[in-house]
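Pilot study result, target chain (175 residues):
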Amino acid sequence: MDTKRNDDNDDVHRRCKCKKTKCLKLYCDCFSAGFYCYEACSCKECFNLRDYEDEVQESRECIEERNPLAFSPKIHSLEGGDKLMPNVQKHRKGCICKKSMCMHRYCECYKGKVGCWSNCRCEGCKNVHGMKGGGKCDIMIGTSIRESGLDQNEFINRFTPQDKNGGDLKSSMNL
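Predicted structure:
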């Protein structure tokens, strides 16, 4: 368990607000990230402290027994992309969004600032970090405008569906 906490890291790691879990479940941002809770947290009846190291370790082992990947990073890099994107970051399992269209923090991919991909089971994907499926969109999965090297119009055109004549559908429908 990583116990390092300093003021420089405060904005990197969230402060938890656990009320009933005693900060020993994956719901706790501190516990799931492998950190102990600290003064800035506003949790109740916290056991995720150095004083309770045995309980923390026991809870961690119990969770890992059921799910060996529970504490592994959800976002990982895939090597061997193309010239535009040599390293692509993806969510380990993908998202399952139905109504949010991958546009809110409910979406695991959106929350991790990565694009959706073939493992995602989302419907109506509009992830701003990259949409799954659909030709040109695949090139941009996991890329922001800044990372792509394209200007804003070129980037947006990558995500605009084309009609049969090569024009974009939005302008041909007079929108």
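One observation from the pilot: The chain has a mean pLDDT of 73. A full batch analysis is planned for the follow-on phase.
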